[in-house]
Amino acid sequence: MSQKTIARLERLQQLNSNRQWINHDLYRLMYQEDLYIIAYERIKSKPGLKNGQ
C-alpha cells in the first residue's frame, strides 16, 4: 500500500471534520488502486463478519 494514499486519506479525514471545508477533487481518489486495497483490508478485519461474505 502506498503511504502517500494513506496520508492523503488521513488528511481528508482531518479536513472533513471542518463543516466549512468542501472537497472538490474527491473523485480523483477513485482512480487510486491503493484506496480499494485499504478499504478491503479495513472491511475484512472487522469483527462479526462471516467468512465468504
Quick take:
With 53 residues, the chain is mainly alpha-helical. The chain has helices at residues 3-16, 33-44. Helix content is 49%, strand content 0%.
Count of individual beta strands? 0
Tally of discrete structural domains: 1
Q: What series of H and E elements makes up the topology? A: HH
Based on CA inertia axes, which overall geometry fits?
Answer: globular
Radius of gyration: 14 Å
Poorly predicted segments: none
In whole angstroms, the N-to-C terminal distance is 23 Å
Mean pLDDT: 79
Number of helices: 2
Largest β-sheet summary: none
Bin the helical content: 40-55%
Work out the strand percent.
under 5%
What class do helices, strands and sheet pairing give?
A: mainly alpha
Could you explain the architecture of this structure?
By secondary structure, the protein is mainly alpha-helical. It has one domain (3-44). 49% of the residues lie in helices and 0% in strands. It is built from two helices and no strands. It has helices at residues 3-16, 33-44. The relative contact order is 0.17. The mean pLDDT is 79.
